[in-house]
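Subject: for your reference before the review

Hello V.,

The reviewers asked for a structural picture of the protein, and I figured it would be easier to keep everything in one thread rather than splitting it across files. Below is the amino acid sequence we used in the manuscript, unchanged from the supplementary table.
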Amino acid sequence: MKKGFIIILIIGIIISAFGVGLIAIAVSNKSFKRETVDVKNTIEINDDFSNIDIDIMSADIEFIINSDNKCVIDVLETQKQHHKANVENDKLVIRSVDERRWYEKIFSFNFETMKLKISLPKNTYNNLIIKNSSGNLKLNDFTFNETDIKTSSGNIDISNLNSSKTNITTSSGNIFIKNSNTNETKLQVSSGNINISNTNSSNSIITTSSGNINLTDYIIENNLDARVSSGNIIFSKIDAKDINMKTSSGDIKGSVLTPKTFIANTSSGDINVDKSSTGDRCVLNTSSGNINVTVINK
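And here is what came back from the structure prediction:
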């Protein structure tokens, strides 16, 4: 027992000494510090492109239309974390560049967010791909054939978007979509709310593990599938040929535009739907919660 204890003690001392050494290196190199987002850069793109591919570490991103018919990227960043952009094979490529040493990544910290304002010379492009670890996204008044957005943390705010295929995934953050045509739509949030208003789609799959789904004036040509693990599904003046809503813990309540054949089930709660209504199928399920849906145009 004593021998084993001594071995464990020695290992602990070695690990502690290693940690002290890391701190000493950081202090000697002045790396144990707060990083400041105070470096302003402007990147001008002169080549034409029809696709956009963004893969960065952490920054707020905003898209705007540039009336000067130029692509200009205004960046607010740190000295050792910056961004590069160029055109490759008809694609605008934006990437993060991290010049920090490994111990600087451990001992430096930053409470500010880097920012990218992307001014584009037109509002219609082929494909948009965005991967962002942390940061908010604003995308207004653009048209894409395909829109694919993935973030770990941050809100996504979209308006006046036209997209044939829309795929948005975020681990922690809210999704806001309004005044848009998103056609084939797939929205997925691990922790956060999904809000859609004044929008049209052909098919829509909406899921959130922890959060609410709020739909207003949302018209789906074919199928709507909305699922929540823990949260409510609230909607007003929506419609689809086939509606399937499910929440494990929460309420389902709202209004549909046209008559439906309701199939509603709850393990613990009240159900209030128009049982005499006939039309397209509307399946509503909750394990613990109430179901209350009305038909506007009977």
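For the response letter, the relevant points are probably these. Helices lie at 2-28, 102-107. The CA atoms of residues 50 and 125 lie 5 Å apart.

Happy to draft the paragraph if you're swamped.

O.
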